[in-house]
Amino acid sequence: MLALEFADGTLLVRNVPPELSLPAACRWDQRSRCHRAPAIAYAELVRWLRKEGVEYEDRARKYAELSERLVLQREARPFQSEALEAFRKGGGRGVVVLPTGAGKSHVAVLAINDRRRSALVVAPTLDLVRQWYDLLRTSFATDVGIIGGGSYDLRPLTVTTYDSAYLHMQRLGDRFGLVVFDECHHLPGETYQLAAELCLAPYRLGLTATPERTDGREATLDRLVGPILYRKDIVELSGEYLAEYETVRVDIELSAEEREEYAARRKEYIDFLRAQGIRMGGPRGWSDFVMRAARSDAGRRAFQSYLRQRELAFGASGKMRFVGRLLEQHRRDRTLIFTQDNATAYAVSREFLLPAITHQTKVKERSEILERFSSGAYSALVTSKVLNEGVDVPEASVAIVMSGSGSVREHVQRLGRILRRQGDKHAILYELVANQTGESSTSERRREHDAYRAVPKC
Amino acid sequence: MLSPEHLRVRRVSDRLVLLELSARQRARAVELGEQLLGTVQASVGQMREELERGFELIETRASERRLVEGLKKLIEDASEFDQAEGFDPAALRSEVFLRAAAARQAETFGAPNLREAVLSGAAEALGVEPAEVERRLYADLRGAHRLKSAPPFSAEALVAAYQRAQLQTVLLRATSVVAEVHCANQDAYRQLFQKLKFRKLLYKLERLDDGGYRISIDGPFSLFDAVVKYGLELALVLPALEACDVLELKARVLWGKKRAALNVEHRHVRRRGAVETESVLRDDVATLLAEFNALGSAWCAKPAQEILELEGFGGCVPDLVFERADSPRVFLELLGYWSRDAVWRRVELAERGLGERIVFAASSRLRVSEEVLENEHAALYVFKGRPGARAIERKLDALAARR
After folding, report:
1. Is there a single domain that holds both residue A99 and residue A39?
2. Least CB-CB distance to B65: which of A294, A346, A372?
3. Of B62, B96, B115, the CB nearest to A299
């Protein structure tokens, strides 16, 4: 009888009758002298075997029906029920797009309960792993496994990071019937996508607020997870399901000394670009600059100047003073301060004696800071890019973006941190931009989203 | 390991060429290595930031940047750093930030000298000076780590390590490797195949006319896509490949942000006088060998030296050979418990005829039955837990009786 086996992220198809022509996903593997298919083809292959009436022995699937039931019955919001219905109609494979704070994770909990299969949740950060662990444990009243951050505890409900999924999926890929990819815009990356390919789970749910990627690879999600099944944007949910909000752009002047140094450093960098004929706006602009900068002393100086002028714009003394004013004004509000680089985050932390979270912060301290921020023991914290995703504090109502990249997604995610609805909360995001510097155009680029409509300027 | 920005490579058409150091460049690299190692030795007890400032004082040309950064990376990886002694900076921050948060929410926030008041309060609570509190607030950050010890190697060894690390870094991006190897010593082959098995890499083996082997190495998923998933394993196999007398390696790598598919070639001839590869038995094989020879059996067991191959179908590397005066020798390969697939491959090889008598020992966890291989030259022994010497002796006797 034809047999399916899971082997290191692939399916071995043995004892194939000579007259049977297998689907295109299956190839003859001379190395193991049997047919082989990528694990992701499992559902398609099983459907085909059933349709063709081929008897087969399934030794591949190691996942089980989930015995745990949802014990914490939270009433689903109408759009969450609609998303679940769309997931069902899509055959249990696809992506749900909802803004941060709208309750995407509840849609996943409903989907796990609906499919009733061992489920793996893959999240981008350890903070999110911790939140999923708490959510699943409370929702299903059962022990939940964690893989990643030093833990390797495999259970019918398990949470892991994208990094660990990539590392371990070739061994774990037969253990889950449903995989939830949280913040699934990460998945189409060159390495992470293997986590989806090495896994045989027939049911797959992707969750994100912003599926679009700058490299355009979001189309890959269709193959790795499924098509977009349901979508709602911030503007559609603002007020009723998300907090009312406003965004304020603040133009900050550099000091005279900063302006002088900024101009000199920028000139040195721009002169080098012109002399080399490098167009930074072109597709190879940045890599050309880095490569040519490395080849000469003038290039190395230009590179240092590039870094310094950027540093001056990011950490302008005027920004520091303005942050001080905002902290005083919002001292009773829960405030998140975002920076583009660690150096500015630590400078803010030292100046205002605020806790900082960067990629260097150890897990224990990071958890303690987030718990205190949630409880109100800390009313403000500063972070570089690590909390763009992953902090779930409904009380947070003020965001101060001191510096950032030109990424629309990053900017929307930062706004999303303060949009979780609570009482009559009114959220406010301040974006501090060093006036007449390269940051002005960066700010224009990142605000190209409906969520940043009618931005008042100070 | 190094990063791509540390490598001296050049792209020529569809090839990625690792740039060899000329005699003059090598001498200069050693000179730079001496200066870098001198700096690190003189910086023991200093902070990492100070060590990095020391490195910056070494005069280098722009063309030497990759080499210098690579050497620095290897030196830093081999150095030992420690956090500043004294109280825990995380606990200090907790004390300071809680006080500051409380003050911020109090009506007095914004009052002059509030920052100083918070630092003084924390200093008093911890029994140190306020300036010390500020200084130690982030004493655990990477730049503040103290250098505890410098690496003991010479500048020549550092430069040699850089050259090997370059190739390993390239192999991290490899999707497949084809190695042509020649060894006078069978043990080198054996260790290489054992290493490939251990790394869960799949390979195709072909005998070359001149006695060597061509080994095509990749991973299970490579059949469907050129992935770098097995790059780390391929890089870690390099020392075993270089332990062969002559190695000619061709790798396919995905290079750069655009992941261009490029070819890399590398030839390595083992130096005369280099340490001979030692025959190292795996722990489970050594235990079995000792237990078997303690039985007092008519069979005498010893480590096997041969590779059994079947032209066009690959081969296997037995672990032990058993000899008895009145019987042809019998080999044993201990397959362990990690790959059911490997068992099927051995069964197929044995059925096609390996030319020698052999017993394959596999764990019952692989869910295979001994009945799948019972012919006059080969047998499968399925064990629970660990292989038993007496059970193997019975298998050997049964095979001998099939003459």
Report:
1. no
2. A294
3. B62
